[in-house]
TrEMBL record:
Protein name: ABC transporter
Source organism: Roseateles depolymerans
GO molecular function: ABC-type oligopeptide transporter activity; ATP binding; ATP hydrolysis activity
Record PROSITE patterns: ABC_TM1F, ABC_TRANSPORTER_1, ABC_TRANSPORTER_2
Membrane protein topology class: Multi-pass membrane protein
SMART domains: AAA
Length: 757
């Protein structure tokens, strides 16, 4: 039988390859390539079968190669383009290009090619395919392991024990709460026990014609009232104490998680969505708090209650007690069967809910762009799809849970009927009294009620376990920019920077290779090059947002990795292309890097950044509130505030990444004046879109494909007519062309109209 397992899509190229399959030929993997030889977008498809490698090329042609031991498939990438090369040991047979969007599927394809000798698993039915990469999904799974960004393992209930790390500081209060819980539980068991003498010594003798002893009735009723009051007081005290403790545990968990998150490198945040992280720190910790304060408390109370009731029942009548336990094995079996489904289901629900919050986190901050492009309906539809997915996953889990709870209730009712029947039999044979059966039924009602409550706790326990796992996924993640074990003390920085044979890779993509550069203290370096040449990556490495994978970056002769991160970054000023302002006053934003700065220092920094004048024109001056991300200010005003923020900390090393590329010419002049004040006496590394803004640099460093191709002053590089000269000429021609296109051509009759006017 012919199989067509991993088909890429229903495109004509894919259908054409399917038609070329031989009878009995199985497809092992498929890959869509989306670039042609000229790096233009075009669709092509590769299919690996157990016999051949088939290719529908972007130009419409078809090729095939029999799978021989000499064939090799090499995967690489360069400047954002993936390369897949087929060789036979003598030379290249074919080369395919694709964008990095398909890089993960290309790795899968290469893995399948390298294991091509292994047999294909026969399947009788068409397999379910991943909608994104068209890989075969595992059985009983809706998630493709190839497309998943992180490994989603089902949460174990044991993960909740790790919360003891946060509960340890409150162990005294927890012990007190436990003792109060035992007392409250014991007090609630007094009333059923007192029903036996009430029935046997008061009510039944009264029915038989005897007089009621008032003192005996008062004694028993006083015992019932006293037990109820004691139970209420102890229950209130233990609930209050444990609720306070659980809230503090959740608060400590939130604080610790956020502090750990702040210590992770930028690489971690690049692979996570803001809404998902917000959901973990917010709703997951709230769920854990509710579990600790209510459900965990209920679970422990239920266990105590069941244990005490069991002892009382067996001490009263062992045979009737055994009849009470008849439903227990069936309920335990059901809990075991349902638990696995619940723990995987709730973990999936948490991730889907993270998708919903991610849509909110994407859309609300970008509402101006949404409205500018009239995409409100599209974003509403995107939210609806995420919400519908959340509803679908919840509905699937509720099918299991809706069957479980009524079944447990049915089993407990059956158990109660068994006790009634057996109790009547024992009374008929004069082995127990009516009062004993009445007390048994009262205890059994509580026993089965607690049993049903415990079965329901399975659900909330798995929810809490799923939330705890997502929290500990953050806490267990180690930053790939670690703090040194024995840091070098850094009191003062001169500003000498040495880049020594450095290399850096994003995943399997090489961005910087074999780069060497010496920067003197107080020198201004301009980084130029085409987009993707590695300029921004280089300054990220100097700031140690990432660590080099090869070589070393040294400041004043000491490797960056030997400094404490906070000590080193205190000496770095960063001015970005898109300045980020926090919600708050302008003074608070300027003093962000130095919270204890005086108002005089803040004003001095604003004056040096040429921001003082426009700040005074605002309604509350330096105390004026700026909107989220500084939406109440223009781009140039935000940039000058960010320059003032950098000036205030008086850094020895200054990084400027396209600081003037997003503003008009007049604003650029104002910003340039501020930058002149900022760079004076500091080691400066500047990236600029307009090459003319770097003419004041001591040296220009020209980068291409992660390497330095030229270094020197502007005039010297122009005279060499090399890479920098070509960039300069290309930009000059573009400026001239834009100027010509901006000229307004006046119609012939325009002068006449003007004269008449």
């Amino acid at each position: 039988m012919q199989h067509s397992h991993p088909v890429v899509s229903a495109s004509p190229a894919a259908e054409a390859l399917q038609a070329r399959l031989r009878p009995g030929e199985n497809v092992r993997a498929a890959l869509e390539v989306d670039l042609d030889t000229h790096l233009r977008f075009s669709s092509g498809v590769l299919q690996l079968t157990d016999q051949r490698l088939l290719a529908a090329e972007p130009d419409g042609s078809f090729q095939e190669w029999l799978l021989t031991p000499a064939l090799r498939l090499l995967l690489s990438d360069h400047a954002g383009v993936g390369l897949l090369e087929l060789t036979d040991g003598k030379g290249r047979l074919a080369l395919w290009r694709f964008t990095m969007r398909a890089n993960l599927q290309a790795q899968r394809f290469q893995d399948a090619f390298n294991t091509r000798g292994e047999p294909v698993r026969a399947q009788s039915d068409e397999p379910e395919l991943c909608p994104s990469c068209q890989a075969v999904l595992p059985e009983d799974s809706e998630e493709c392991p190839s497309c998943a960004r992180e490994l989603h393992t089902p949460p174990s209930t044991w993960v909740l024990l790790r919360l003891w790390r946060f509960a340890r500081p409150y162990q005294g209060q927890l012990l007190l709460g436990f003792l109060l819980m035992m007392g409250a539980t014991g007090a609630t068991l007094v009333s059923p026990y007192l029903t036996m003498p009430l029935m046997d010594k008061v009510l039944i003798p009264f029915q038989q014609g005897q007089q009621i002893d008032p003192s005996l009735v008062v004694l028993y009723l006083s015992g019932l009232l006293g037990a109820a009051i004691v139970s209420w007081v102890l229950g209130w005290a233990k609930t209050y104490i444990l609720a306070l403790v659980s809230e503090r545990i959740a608060a400590d968990l939130r604080t610790t998680t956020f502090e750990h998150l702040m210590g992770l490198s930028l690489e971690y945040f690049g692979s996570k969505r803001t809404g998902d992280l917000m959901s973990r720190i917010g709703s997951e910790t709230d769920r854990i708090s509710v579990f600790l304060s209510l459900h965990a408390l209920d679970f422990i109370t239920d266990c105590l209650m069941l244990g005490m009731i069991t002892v009382i029942l067996f001490s009263t009548n062992p045979w009737l007690a055994l009849a009470t336990l008849v439903p227990l094995p069936f309920i335990a079996w059901m809990i075991h069967m349902v638990r696995d489904r619940l723990r995987t289901g709730f973990e999936k629900i948490d991730r889907v809910w993270g998708e919903v919050t991610s849509v909110l986190a994407d859309t609300i901050p970008g509402i101006r762009v949404v409205k500018a492009f009239a995409q409100e309906r599209r974003e509403a539809q995107r939210f609806k799809q995420a919400n519908d997915h959340n509803l679908e996953v919840n509905d699937r889990l509720n099918k299991t849970w809706s069957l479980f709870s009524p079944t447990v209730a049915l089993l407990t009712e059956i158990g109660l009927l068994v006790v009634w029947a057996f109790g009547i039999y024992l009374i008929a044979h004069s082995q127990i009294t009516v009062g004993t059966l009445t007390a048994f039924l009262a205890y059994i009602g509580r026993f089965y009620g607690r049993l049903d409550s415990m079965s329901r706790i399975v659900s909330v326990t798995q929810k809490a376990a799923a939330g705890a796992k997502r929290i500990f996924d953050i806490l267990d993640h180690q930053s790939n920019v670690p703090e040194p074990t024995n840091p070098v003390k850094l009191d003062r920085v001169e500003g000498a920077i040495t880049l020594q044979d450095i290399g850096f890779r994003y995943g399997n993509r090489t961005v910087i290779r074999d780069l060497n550069l010496q920067i003197k203290p107080g020198e201004m370096i301009g980084l130029v090059g085409h987009s993707g040449s590695g300029k921004s990556t280089l300054v990220n490495l100097i700031c140690r947002f990432y660590d080099v994978t090869e070589g070393a970056i040294k400041v004043d002769g000491v490797d960056l990795r030997r400094f404490r991160l906070s000590d080193f970054r205190r000496h770095i000023g960063l001015v970005l292309q898109e300045p980020f302002l926090f919600f708050g006053t302008i003074a608070e934003n300027i003093a962000y890097g130095k919270p204890d700065a005086t108002r005089e220092e803040i004003v001095a920094a604003a004056r040096a950044a040429h921001a003082h004048e426009f700040i005074l024109r605002l309604p509350q001056g330096y105390d004026s509130l700026v909107g989220e991300r500084g939406q109440g200010l223009s781009g140039g005003e935000r940039q000058r505030i960010s320059i003032a923020r950098a000036l205030l900390i008086d850094p020895r090393i200054l990084i400027m990444d396209e600081a003037t590329s997003a503003v008009d010419t007049e604003t650029e002049k104002e910003i340039q004046k501020a930058l002149d004040n900022l760079v004076r006496g500091r080691t400066t590394i500047a990236i600029a879109h307009r090459l003319s803004t770097l003419r004041k640099a001591d040296r220009l460093v020209v980068m291409d494909r992660g390497e330095i191709v030229e270094v020197g002053p502007h005039d010297e590089l122009i005279a060499k007519q090399g890479a920098y000269w070509r960039l300069w000429e290309a930009q000059a021609r573009r400026v001239d062309q834009e100027a010509e296109e901006a000229v307004v051509i006046v119609p012939p009759n325009a002068n006449a109209h003007t004269a008449n006017a």
